[in-house]
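User: I'm writing a short report section on ligand binding and want a predicted complex to refer to. Could you take this sequence and 6-O-phosphono-beta-D-fructofuranose and write out the structure as tokens? A short remark afterwards would be nice.
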Amino acid sequence: MVSRTKRIGVLTGGGDCPGLNAVIRAVVKTAQNEYDMDVIGFLDGYEGLIENQYRELSLKDASGILALGGTILGTSNRADPFRFPVLQGEEYIYLDRSSQGIRNYEALGLDAIIAIGGDGTMAASAGMIEKGLPVIGVPKTIDNDLLGTDVTFGFDSALATATDAVDKIHTTAQSHHRVMIIEVMGRYAGWLALYSGLAGGGDIILVPEIPYDIEAICDAVKSRNAQGKNFSIVVMGEGARQMGGEMVVSRIVANSPDAIRLGGISHQVAAQIEGLTNIECRVTILGHLLRGGSPTAYDRILATRFGVEAVHLVAQGKSGQMVGLHGNQMGSVPIEDVAGKQRKIAAANPVLATARSLGICMGVSMEHPIEEFFAEQV
Ligand code: F6P
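Assistant: Sure. The structure tokens for the complex follow:
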């Protein structure tokens, strides 16, 4: 019996980040060079599977894209196959179009889908796997908040951009003797804030996991001024909130699976610090800048390893797994175990302990163990 050439579909879903093209490149090269498989790319995430929008991906298409930011396939964070937005008149209605996705997959003669995305894409994939679609997941996000991998690709590149911004803001903070507040993305997890705050030499770091006490922040600022260091750098996650307070929502994207978009809490902190210390504050919100640009060398290698591993799993006939970095090894975990869950900073996190040892204010009193301040134990 002559065996048929295998055919893989690849898609990129959710918010973009540096390294997506590096995964696509690795998938195409490994599929064609090592296994003689064909690859097609669905456009705009699961939307492409539902609407049957795709393009063939040849080795030529995979050339010259390693260092390119964004995704050559496009992406969408509104394309949940089970709650697919369809414009009716001026209103969106939501339909379960998952079966259409399965029909398109079968008609295209595919053997597997490689879905590159964050928790939204993994949640959609978990549902599609239950309906019989063989999916291998690849974990991406600048937020680094996915379970099942030590790190997601995209995080290191966003961290490099954030650190560069903190470095640049340092000099103007010094010149003007101001408190400079830098707000970074990251949703409900503080990885980007903690790591860029530490890498950029921040004085105060505010993460969503530890609701802040404004008095403790002002004490830290005043104590620096008393030591003659009359400027301070605050690095904070967009999901940070005051003890007993709420996160600041910047917009609701109704037709997105996770409708809430955070942002703007830094303005509240600036007003509070100015009111309580009479020291001038300025705010910089880095926002989508963190998702742009070329991937770092670390992310290029991680993304490449993920893409290669994903194709190995397809070749082994595996399905329902998300690839991950475990130590320095490639591994995989069931997508259903990670879908819809978030990895946040734990009280026992060693990098958090490092920040505390340096005397960095985490928005709470230094006199008590940090565990006492966690919103929830993770
Ligand atoms: O998940 C990545 C992320 O950039 C978050 O850090 C941020 O909260 C969100 O996406 C922004 O989403 P959008 O691109 O819809 O504004």
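A remark for your report: The pocket of 6-O-phosphono-beta-D-fructofuranose is lined by residues 15, 77, 118, 141-143, 185-187, 238, 253, 261-262, 291 (CB under 6 Å). DSSP finds eleven helices and 15 strands in the chain.
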